[in-house]
Amino acid sequence: MNSQEFRNNLLLKRPRYAVSRIPVLDAFSEKGSKSADYSRFGPYYEIYIYAMMLGIKKKQRLPLPPRDLTKDFIEMGKWKRDSSLIDFLLMVIFTQTDDLQIDWNELEDMEQEDLNKVISRVVTLIEEYANGGLAYLEELWENGKLDNSHYMFIDLYNGL
Q: What is the pLDDT of residues 64-113, one digit of tens each?
């Protein structure tokens, strides 16, 4: 499998999120509402990526609940027409080599089965970091500790 095939296989994956996180996703995502108490992202996956970044910065990975308590996104490759957001997400995750437990130099010599395991670990890492970041956001939101401003998310990220 070459690097393009690896990327294409990864972009077919559908990361999951906990159903219990829907209220916080709704609070910070555009869901057809133009007025909001807090600064808003567009679709769920944008706040999900931001939450993943918070999880990485806080070093907070939280496993997802069982499958019946989660929902799937559409495939990562369909998240946005401009692939730069997805490329950014993947590059950030790829820097987590200790968590991924891989040596990038060995990737090109791996068998298909081992490559599929790497792809699975990448998706799991995205899910766990995003869930950790969403838990952190949810805690701040429920305790009234978010200061709404145009730069709320940047300030929150920089404050960690």
A: 999 999 999 888 988 875 667 788 888 889 888 788 888 888 887 888 89
Could you give the maximum distance between any two Cα atoms of the chain, in Å?
A: 52
Residue that has been written with the tokens 């987590």 in this structure: 96
Cα distance between residue 114 and residue 97, in whole Å = 16
Tokens coding 15: 């990361």
SS3 at position 141: helix
Q: Which of 45, 15, 48 is nearest to 130 (CA)?
A: 48
Q: Mind listing the pLDDT tens digit for each residue in 102-143?
A: 888 888 788 889 889 999 999 999 999 999 999 999 999 899
| Calculated CA dihedral for residues 51, 55, 56, 58, nearest 10 degrees | 130
